Amino acid sequence: MSFLRGGGNPAPSGGVNIDKIEMAITELDTVTDFFNRMVQSVSCHAKCISPRYADADLNKGEGVCIDRCVAKFNEVQKKVGEKLQSRGAANAAAGAGSSFGSL
């Protein structure tokens, strides 16, 4: 059985769960964006790996550099996400309070 079927809010016709498809698409977009950021010119790939590939595998220094760089990138993304969520929640709370206060 596919994880996209059943559970939650099933489709009226008994087909695929639309909510789960949307979540899967969002997750795929997020992973694809992360991968693209890691291999673009201003990323960990450019910083840690020489443009002249001497070996098929990463050497120890390149591997350590990539690990550290990706960990730092993930930590920054996490902090930015948390900050955006807290600001969004604060804005929503301020907006909800002010909209009813004027009635």
Hey, roughly how much beta strand do the residues contain? Answer: under 5%
The oligomeric state is single chain
Q: Nearest-angstrom radius of gyration?
A: 22 Å
Total of helices: 3
Largest sheet, described in full?
none
Listing every helix as H and every strand as E from the N terminus to the C terminus, the arrangement reads HHH
Low confidence ranges:
none
Question: Count the strands?
Answer: 0
- Average the pLDDT over all residues and give the rounded result: 80
Cα end-to-end separation: 52 Å
Task: Give structural notes.
The protein is mainly alpha-helical. The protein is 67% helix and 0% strand. The chain is built from 3 helices and no strands. The protein has helices at residues 18-39, 44-48, 60-101. The relative contact order is 0.06. The mean pLDDT is 80.
Question: What's a quick, concise take on this entry?
Answer:
The chain has helices spanning 18-39, 44-48, 60-101.
Key attributes of the depicted protein:
103 residues; mainly alpha
Blueprint (SSEs and pairs):
Blueprint: H1 18-39, H2 44-48, H3 60-101
